[in-house]
Write a structure and sequence with these properties.
It is a single chain. The chain is of the alpha+beta class. It has one domain (2-183): Alpha-D-Glucose-1,6-Bisphosphate, Chain A, domain 4. The chain contains three helices and nine strands, in the order βαββαββββββα. It starts with a strand and ends in a 6-residue tail after the last helix.
C-alpha cells in the first residue's frame, strides 16, 4: 500500500540563503535524531555549472520499542531468524543538484537501511518563488511502503506517516530559525 506525505513552504528569504542554510541544517541540537551528515561526493559540471552532491545521514532509529519487540525476530526463508528493527541507527542517502543559474536545487533521498522490508523515498526542490523573486519555494513529496511485516505493515506505515509529517514540520521550523539567525528578519512583500 504505502503512504505519501506532501510539503509546501515558502521561505521569505533569497534562494542562495535558503540553500546555504539547508546544506548546514544538520546536525542540529533542535533535532537530535540526525546524528551526522557526511558528504560522500561533490562535483561541478563545468559545462552547466550544476553542483552535484551525495551525502549520507546517520539518524537514530525512531521506531517505538513496542513495534521493535513485535517485529524483533521474523522467521524468513530457511527458518533463519533476523532482527529487523533492532538497529540503533538508520542511514539515508541524499543526492542534490544545485543550479545557481536557474536558481533551483533538486534533491532525491532514500533509506539505505531495511531496504528488503521498507522503501522510503523523498523528492524535493528549492526554487525561486513565482510570487516574489526574493523568496524561495520548497516542495517535497515523500513516500514510504512497508512489506514483509504481515498485518503490522499498516501499523508501521501509519507510524511512518505521522513521523514524516512531524519531521517535515520540525525541519521547516529549524530552517526558519537558522535563516532568522543567519540572515535576520524575513523579507517583506
Amino acid at each position: 500500500m504505502g503512504v505519501t506525505v506532501d510539503v509546501h513552504q515558502v521561505y521569505k528569504y533569497p534562494f542562495e540563503q535558503v540553500v546555504a542554510s539547508f546544506l548546514r541544517k544538520y546536525p542540529n541540537p533542535m533535532d537530535k535524531n540526525v546524528i551526522s551528515v557526511k558528504i560522500m561526493e561533490e562535483k561541478r559540471d563545468e559545462s552547466t555549472g550544476i553542483i552535484y552532491r551525495k551525502r549520507i545521514a546517520i539518524c537514530q532509529n525512531v521506531v517505538p520499542e513496542i513495534l521493535r519487540k513485535s517485529l524483533s525476530t521474523l522467521v524468513i526463508l530457511y527458518w533463519k531468524k533476523v532482527s529487523i528493527l533492532k538497529v540503533p541507527n538508520i542511514q539515508l542517502e541524499e543526492e542534490s543538484w544545485l543550479n545557481h543559474q536557474e536558481r533551483n536545487m533538486a534533491i532525491r533521498s532514500h533509506c539505505l537501511t531495511w531496504t528488503q522490508y521498507a522503501s522510503m523515498k523523498e523528492e524535493s526542490v528549492f526554487r525561486e518563488s513565482m510570487e516574489n523573486p526574493n523568496w524561495t519555494e520548497f516542495i517535497q513529496r515523500g513516500r514510504i511502503s512497508i512489506t514483509g511485516a504481515g498485518f503490522l505493515n499498516c501499523i508501521l506505515e501509519t507510524f511512518a506517516s505521522t513521523f514524516l509529517r512531524q519531521g517535515a514540520q520540525k525541519g521547516i521550523r529549524i530552517m526558519e530559525m537558522l535563516l532568522k539567525e543567519q540572515c535576520g528578519a524575513p523579507l517583506a512583500e
